[in-house]
Amino acid sequence: MLTLQAQCVLDQQALLGEGPVWDDQLQELFWVDIEGKKLHRYKPANKQTHEYELEQRIGAAVPAEDGSWIVALEDGFYRLNLESGNVTLVAHVNEEPQGQTRLNDGKCDERGRFYAGTMHFDCSEPIGALYTLEAGGRVTKRLADVTISNGLAWSGDEKMMYYIDSGEQVVNAFDYDAGSGEIGNRRVIFSLADEVGGPDGMSIDAEGMLWVCHWGGWQVSRWNPHTGKKLAKVEVPAANVTSCAFGGEQLDELYITTARIGNNEQALREQPQAGGLFKVKTGVQGRPVARYQG
User: What sign does the CA torsion over 164, 169, 173, 174 have?
Assistant: First the structure.
């Protein structure tokens, strides 16, 4: 099995780094610090960084076709103007019981729907859900009884959606209707029960293989979703590996986010770059980001 080593790009010391997104038009990486309530922006060409401070925890961010970004904050979807930093409400997510969940990870499908799910604040009860934000600000619930809605990816032929609920130790697949956005026929395609750490964020490469981040596992693993075989791993010098995305001019660099939370003081002394942004050359390419249409 191929083993790669990730190198630190930014020693950001993020509390809960998550949700990296490569904007191929800007040639920049965006990523969030959920607990720090920030959206980070990084331009590798000149090492320039910028951050947007928000009033709520931010679970995910995606670019929109009009040049703005749609951000999933605790209670709903908002539009962020990159130039002014202004944030305006697009749609609330009204969940019951109120005050016990927040929006977490999310991505757009190729049709421009923003899928984002909620999670229980204590990470223990399946009271979250998976939603889509569509054109016009319409919010549709796609899946219920979720504990920690997390990694998402779609097959190149748009017939399958891959999904992680971090309350489980598995990766799921759904039949996916690209026209309507409906999902069905949920099944487990592989388990991480014998792996170190639990599944968190996820990405897919141009060959259709899945890259899964291990919270508490010091790695990102590459899997064949058709056979359930583990193909490779990227070792990361931080325990809580949260999410990943392909970037760079050739889309062959895997950017990886990590977290400082979930570690005691002794653990942090052993992993001083926890909360940093990491990168590794994978030898395979990813796919361009899908943008929100609405």
Answer: negative
Tell me how crowded residue 44 is: count the other CB atoms within 10 A of its CB.
17
Is the CB of residue 167 less than 8 Å from the CB of residue 148? Answer: yes
Catalytic residue selected from 194, 200, 205, 252: 200
- Contacts for 1 with CB less than 8 Å, ≥ 6 apart: 230, 231, 232, 233
Are 210 and 203 contacting, i.e. CB atoms less than 8 angstroms apart? Answer: yes
CA angle, 99 as apex, 165 and 93 as ends, to 5°? 65
What tens digit of pLDDT does each residue of 239-268 get?
A: 999 999 999 999 999 999 999 999 999 999
User: Is residue 200 flagged as an active site residue?
Assistant: yes
Pick the CATH number of 2-281 from 2.120.10.30, 2.130.10.10, 2.30.30.100, 3.40.50.150: 2.120.10.30
pLDDT single digits (tens) 59-111: 999 999 999 999 999 999 999 999 999 999 999 998 877 889 999 999 999 99
Q: What is the pTM of this model?
A: 0.98
